[in-house]
Amino acid sequence: MIQPINMELQRNNRSWNRALASLAKVRHESEPSCVLQTPVADSKTGHAHFLSRLSFETDPSDVYMDLKNESSTLIVIDARTSEAFARGHVPGAINIPWRKMDASTTSSLDKEKVLVTYCDGVYCNASTKAAAKLTALGFRVKEMLDGISGWKTEGYPLEETVVQLSVSTMR
User: Is 0.90 topped by the overall pTM?
Assistant: First the structure.
């Protein structure tokens, strides 16, 4: 048997729900914010901070656009191993593994251009190590955020290097 709806009970339930929601809101507003445990900077300080970050970092989209537009102002440096580079890299990138970077391996690079370093992605810091070495050598450098992982995620093309092996036989 179907029970008739008690409209008075429904009205009371709505009032009860509004009261609970209001109580939850007051409770929520009185709880400390995890985000604001460290106070937010004023806008002038924030602006300087974010401009500073942008002077050190770039993203795959900006690098792609500059390469597509054939910008002559930058050189892209893949700081990964030669094996990783061979499997796929940003088109036109030069491979200088960060562990091998020194005055000799970078002597052919133009110091008037901005070097953009990258590595595998967020769990790799080879591009940061490369940027530190390159700036110590007098180059101006930006690091490409998220490395080759970010490049692939954006759907940009990769170049691969064909490695030729020679086999010698002894008779």
Answer: no
